[in-house]
Design a protein that fits this description.
With about 350 residues, the protein is α/β, with parallel strands linked by helices. It has helices at about 5-10, 30-35, 35-45, 50-65, 70, 130-140, 160-175, 175-180, 200-210, 220-225, 250-255, 255-260, 265-270, 275-280, 290-310, 325-330, 335-350; strands at about 75-80, 90, 105-110, 145, 185-200, 225-230, 280-290, 315-320. About 45% of the residues lie in helices and about 15% in strands. Mean pLDDT is about 90; it is low at about 1-25.
């Protein structure tokens, strides 16, 4: 995939940038005054990611803005974990009334974007995207960390997964300085980590934990991680009908052959028993209105996981959501049920 093609993909996804904001006015602005955000999502006939991107952003941008004050009440600090501007992470701190003493759980959230786009802070009209998610979990006593990672065309696999690893490793090595920046006293000794990824982020998270060449068995990250939460993940590659724009996976891996050998579902099937038994507990999610082949991937991944584990794996369909609304709903008061369930699951594990 050429640099020009990657640029075109980024421009196609730039509804998350200000240059497309005029297109978010009608008909969805009028519609959103009459319906809830989730009603608008339910009214969409398409499920393909690029087809639902603009109308979903339109549906949620204003309601997120109306909650700006409460989202921004949560303290956020930025730290550098590596050498480049893509090696920054944001920490969202639980307020004092959400911390009951002892070590608090820590949620890493790895966003998606088709491996070629994405940022922990987005441009207008969605400047609160991901901050809404960080604030939602922080209010429930869960420190939330959202790192950036490097994107196509500047990198090849496994570099984005290595960035995720390095962000987590930096956090574990710098808990004292992270805790010192908290507005309320808190303890980060022996933190309990939960690693969540959405879309491409779910692909990176599962790949990281299924490849000991990237994350060795003796890694402190494995020892500290209590749960994995892949959501809407790209677990299998269908080059005839890809979820990502054509050519992206080949660009990321170098060839279709290499990519096929490193699909997360294949890594899960072929993991040796010691590696499989070392995996943390998992809570998988998919949106009700994700593209059908993405839903099928999640169901297949769960089936393989359960087959090897010999017991059910927690699996939740985020009712009413599409691929984009899933991350925009927290802190809006609408469509938050999946996030409430994840927060409860995390708190039950510590």
């Amino acid at each position: 995939m050429s640099a020009a093609s990657i640029r075109d993909q980024k421009e196609g996804l730039s509804v998350l940038g200000s240059e497309l904001s005029p297109y978010l006015v009608l008909p969805y602005t009028l519609l959103c005054t009459l319906l809830t955000r989730m009603d608008v999502i339910a009214s969409l006939k398409e499920t393909e990611i690029l087809s639902v991107l603009m109308p979903t952003a339109a549906a949620f941008s204003k309601v997120l803005e109306s909650h700006r004050a409460e989202i921004e009440m949560i303290t956020r600090q930025t730290f550098r974990y590596g050498e480049t501007e893509r090696h920054n992470l944001d920490v969202y701190y639980p307020p004092a009334d959400a911390v009951s003493g002892g070590s608090i759980p820590v949620l890493f959230f790895i966003y998606g974007g088709g491996f070629a786009t994405g940022s922990r802070t987005l441009s207008p009209p969605l400047t609160l995207a991901y901050s809404n998610l960080g604030a939602f979990f922080a209010k429930r006593g869960i420190m939330t960390v959202i790192p950036d990672y490097r994107l196509l065309p500047a990198v090849k696999f496994p570099e984005p997964a290595e960035d995720v690893r390095d962000a987590i490793a930096w956090f574990l090595s710098n808990t004292t300085s992270v805790a010192a920046a908290s507005p309320a006293p808190l303890t980060l000794s022996n933190p309990n980590l939960f690693i969540m990824g959405h879309s491409a982020g779910a692909h990176l998270v599962t790949s990281l934990f299924l490849l000991p060449s990237i994350l060795p068995a003796a890694s402190p990250i494995r020892a500290a991680t209590r749960g994995l939460i892949p959501s809407g993940g790209v677990f299998r590659f269908d080059f005839a009908n890809p979820v990502t724009p054509p050519g992206v996976i080949e660009q990321l891996y170098g060839s279709q052959e290499t990519a096929q050998g490193l699909m997360p579902i294949l890594l899960l099937q072929n993991a040796d028993e010691a590696l499989f038994q070392s995996l943390p507990e998992a809570f998988l999610l998919v949106s009700e209105h994700d593209p059908p082949r993405l839903v099928k991937m999640s169901e297949e991944f769960v089936k393989v996981f359960e087959g090897r584990l010999g017991k059910p794996v927690r699996y939740q369909v985020a009712a009413g959501h599409n691929h984009i609304s899933f991350c925009l709903a927290p802190s809006t008061g609408e469509g938050e049920e999946w996030a409430v369930q994840v927060a409860e699951w995390i708190k039950s594990k510590v």
